[in-house]
What does this fold into?
Amino acid sequence: MKPKSYTWHVIAAIVILLFLSTVQGARLSGLRETESFYRWVLSASLQSRLGQTLEPDEAPDLAEAMDEELFAKVLDLAEAGLPELPIEEDDFDNEDNPHHVLLRAARQDEDKLIYDLVASAEARPLQDEFHKHLANNLLQSAGTQFRAALLYDKETRVEGVGLTSLFFNFRNFAANLLWLQVDKFFHRGEMHRMLPLMRMSVALDPNFVDAYLLGAWHLAYNLTAQLPDTPEPLKKFHPKYKKRLGIKEEWYYVAADFLKDGIKKNPRDYRLYFDLGYAIYENKLIDHAKAVLYLTDARRYQHDTWVPRMLYLAMWRNGQYEDAIKGWGNYLEEIDPDSIPAIRFIQVNRGYLAEAKAAQADECKAAAQAARKRFAELADEARERGDLQQAGQHESEARIAQEVATEMTALAEEEWENARKIWTPMIQMDEDNIAIARLRRQKAMRNVSEGRYLEAVAELELARYEMLQSFDEISDLMIEVKQKAGLPLTTSELRAVERHREAALYETEDPPKKIRYIECTYLDETVDTEA
Amino acid sequence: MAPVIEALDLCKTYEVGLFSSQSVEALKDVNFSINAGEIFGYLGPNGSGKTTTIKMLLGLIFPTSGTMKILGREDIAAYDIRMKIGFLPEGAYYPEFLKGAEILRFYGKLYGMRGKALNARVDEVLDVVGMTHARKRLLRGYSKGMRQRIGLAQALLSDPEILILDEPTTGLDPVARKEMRDILASLRDQGKTLLISSHELNEVELISDRVAILDGGQMRVTGTLDDLLTERGLTMVVEEVGPEAKAKLNAANIQTDDEATGRVLLRVPSSMSTYEAMEACKQAGLNVTSIAPRRETLEELFVRTVGAPPGEESAATAS
Amino acid sequence: MSAESTAVISAEGSRSGVLGSYIRGPWAIAAYTWKEGIRKKTLLGFLLLSLLVIFGSTFMTAFMASTTISSTTANVEIEVEAKIIKDICVSAIAIFGILITIFISASVVPTELENKVVYTILSKPLRRYQYLAGKFLGVQLIVIANLVLMSTLFFVALYAKEGIWPSLLLWSALLTYFQFLIVSAFTFAVSCTSTSSVLPTIAGLFIYIIGNLTEYLQDVYEKGVESERLFDTMIANIAHGLYLVLPNLRNFDMKDQILYLPSNDPPVDIMIPNLIAYGLVFAAVGYLLAWVLFARKEL
Ligand SMILES: Nc1ncnc2c1ncn2[C@@H]1O[C@H](COP(=O)(O)OP(=O)(O)O)[C@@H](O)[C@H]1O
Ligand SMILES: [Mg+2]
It folds into this structure.
């Protein structure tokens, strides 16, 4: 009886296990591919919201980028495959259509739904297509986080050597070292050398959110602080941003893009949205509408308490007084019932709203009066022609216009009064500077309407120093008043006029749509008083 | 009754080097069997293949050809067989980072012992080998003799029927040797079967029932001591032997051994009678101070069979 | 020393059932390997070094002069420091963890062959595969203990610096372990053919590197199949075959990402059990390889 040897059994077991490991390895690759696809869908869903197209036209080598086409297919699938999701208030971008279902799902943290969708058998062909495009480098929106191979092929290739291959698992570490270097350059004042290293650093570690934040800050603030302003005629039209940009503005956009790149890779980090909205659009590009957009996004994700505050301030600046009042109200209810800024800015927004309504009522009154005059003329013409029916119709229209004008006069008066009722106690209680400035401004406007231009200018002068936030706005108003009164302009005012004139010459965009606070048929373009 | 340990035509060839075709024939057709209750002395000069045989018996290496049986079974690594074997390897190799008692507890666990029974047994074997005093010391600080004792203790742990001891007395001082011999004798008294390999013949001679002499990987002699040490004769002591006298004595087939004290020891073969021996001395002009009957020693047997006294390498090397 | 006092305690009496004897032996070996491991000086040195790095990471960020530009940037600067600490710790755990794993996996068996302790162990009622199982288990205990220790320290360092309690670190550490397990298993298998730990250590490092490069084989394949030349396609197919068979340690990259992902990320939830299964299958392959290689080894 020889001792039994199990060697062959064990070898057979090894072969079986190796087969199993191959199967499991294939399964893992499959899962990882699905993961990439899922992450792309997630990030592309958000990119369609970042105000960029999925296929930026700046890169000529990507002329045949497939992002839009593929994403449209995914969206079709999602519309059929995802269950009904509630549509929330934030799901509109100032338009009537809510955001597409994928974006809503992504922002309502329905990750599981999205994952199940992209991992389903129906999504299989799309996933294959995604990987084909990815391999052929046809997806502009796919960041470097999806495959290491892309990483060393694209962004970190230095002199033909793939950087990642040197680092194995220690890419984050390398990213940090690069970042330390960026920091060194900054402290040495060698700003221009920072950008490439910053880009490489985040390419190595796409989740290095702080690098995105700091980098964008460096670009938009520290770097541009050293640059001169570009005179209007020297600004150049930038095809990607569809705007005429000077050197500084170009860097603002570079910073914004840097942050947007960060959002693609970390779509749920509120800080990126916040800095994009607040630091860049609000403070540098002075685009309040966009700022509101991104700050709204920032508020969607796990965030700090200053995020909603900045959002409501941006809404105020953007003229969304009602939204801001509602927001501050929520803030009082949910976050801090004793918040002094909340209480103050609810009042401020109410005051502004009243003033805006009053101003629009004045406008409407003027428009109605103009319409009445026009209709009266038309009626006279018709009567001369002998068309009595037509004349009667015009007369009644003129009467209606007259009624509206009276109504508007009353409304304007009422709203101005409302505003005063808001500002006065604020001044009495806290000497609130905004209230003071607004009241002075209001007084100035009354003076203007009564023909006392010099007094108006004096009030405005005081008002603009009371509230530096609206210094420019009030200064422009002063110029207007002075021009109306035929008063001489100061040198800086003349320069400002020139600047505005030049800017108007080069204006390529439609002016932003104005918000309507009151209903007035005479102010809507659809009503044709010319007939 | 079947022999406890049996080796049949055991051969072992070591392949030396990875690619060279050099090989060492360490064992050639070795046969022996050990019966229950006996002490078997496995003898041979260094490099003769003793350790090789023992390692094969414990499944540490595998025979090139031939078979081994323990308690009649060929599966010598089976649990129930191993439970009955205690093994003391050549030299002392034990985990150095453990304490004396810890190490024995570890080995005890390998035998499936545990708990109080294990602790009690550990204390007992420590007492048997006289190591109770060092039970709490790390093995790193042990002397060679202490290690050998711990080795014996672990071999005794499971109270095995069979004890295989590879060179148990090598490197021990005379007192320790004596103690080791006593332990081995008492084990035999308990009815254990012992396989003791050694190249120190007088040690084995004192306790063995049966011996096998191995040389160059081949078995030369095997049998009981009574059967093997058949040659008897006389020992005579004389004062100063000159070269001429020596030549004469040698011619008469008497061996001479110079002793340190200046006296000379004469070994008279058994074929010679006392009278003839006395006569030869007289002819050589020597003065006999003492005369005594003598039994052949293992060493002499060894020299007779192997040709040289043990201690030199004599393995056969073939290529 | 009295030979007479040898009262015969029946070893049979304290022996338990068959299953018990199957498990108890390996377990005793594992426990003793563990004991040996934690008393080993080299290992302790590695561990101390890694702990030093983890604690030292707090000071490393001192490289960054923190001139404050505004309150916002100052805030971010502090967070960058925390991030750097995080990454240094992750890297330290990865580097020292893998070194400890390789070192210990490569040495447990060879040192015992070298100092011949194995003679007294394998002559006991213990089959070789049980011995290996015990050793392998012991190695895993040591690796796990190291990982737990390092992660805990990392935890504490992060907590002290940031005041956050990164529970995802647990998953990350778990995946790290299964990555180590694969390297450990194959290093262990190699070590069973050797009587010194030098070669298996080098082999272990090699296994780690190869495991990390497996992903590149797929790129070789993708590039190769496009080519017209026969040689290229041949290379491509070999690369693909290897890609399928070799363990791909990059699959575990998720362990680093986890720290930055939201806690209910669906791919992570699905990947974790799959990665664990992957690690276990390769561990079994490694162990069985060790079994085959060790079964007839001359000791
Ligand atoms: N692992 C090995 N490889 C090659 N030769 C060996 C090996 N082990 C022992 N030998 C040779 O086999 C012969 C017998 O050795 P051994 O059994 O150790 O002798 P002993 O124990 O009788 O002194 C010696 O010549 C030795 O050199
Ligand atoms: Mg020997």
Remarks:
- Chain B has two domains: 5-226, 231-295.
- Chain B touches chain C through 55 residues (CB under 8 Å).
- Chain B has eleven helices and 14 strands.
- Residues 174-189 of chain B form the longest helix (16 residues).
